[in-house]
Amino acid sequence: MTDDLDRIMAIMEAAFDPEWNEAWTRKQVSDSLAFTNTHYRLVDADRAIPARGEAVGFSLVRAVADEEELLLIAVDPAMRGRGLGRALIEDALQQARQRGSAKLFLEMRDNNPAQSLYRNCQFEPIGRRREYYRTRSGPKRDAITFARTID
């Protein structure tokens, strides 16, 4: 688990722009994974989940009752555009389906380029939190909550 936590943190450091303050600390990730209802998955460059080779992306999901939330998803910027984010989302949906969940939620800032990926994966916007994200340089951005029914 410690090795996987190291992999998650390395990917997060590469993938999340510090301007947006979206990356979690090691303690936040570790504390979250201490709960049995929080799950992570690693993907390698060949889209293998769990990763058989070097991990280049991850997802972190929390399950509660019959709903799940995609807490974090990240792919190393050098590996983007290869279907790895989609593979992680499809895996999260499959895992949620196996746990008997009915919906998968996620939240993102309104100018996140991953929005097109989420929409292409049939997530629909269901809510907005005004000025939720605070940048290091000062401007604030809204958060959009998305949901997808698990079929």
Secondary-structure map with pairings?
Layout: H1 2-15, H2 26-33, E1 38-44, E2 55-64, E3 67-75, H3 84-98, E4 103-109, H4 115-120, E5 124-134, E6 140-149
Parallel strand pairs: 3-4
Antiparallel strand pairs: 1-2, 2-3, 4-6, 5-6
Supply the helix-strand structural class. alpha+beta
- Measure the end-to-end span: 31 Å
Residues in helix, %: 25-40%
Low-pLDDT regions: none
Mean pLDDT: 96
Radius of gyration: 15 Å
Structure annotation, total helices: 4
Q: Strand arrangement, largest sheet?
A: 1-2-3-4-6-5
- Sequence of secondary-structure elements: HHEEEHEHEE
How would you describe this structure to a colleague?
With 151 residues, the chain is of the alpha+beta class. Helix content is 28%, strand content 36%. The chain has 4 helices and 6 strands; from the N terminus they run H-H-E-E-E-H-E-H-E-E. Strands 1-2-3-4-6-5 form a 6-stranded mixed beta sheet, sandwiched between helices. The longest helix is centred in the middle third of the chain and has 15 residues. The termini are far apart.
List keywords for this structure.
single chain, 151 residues, alpha+beta, six-stranded mixed sheet, 36% strand
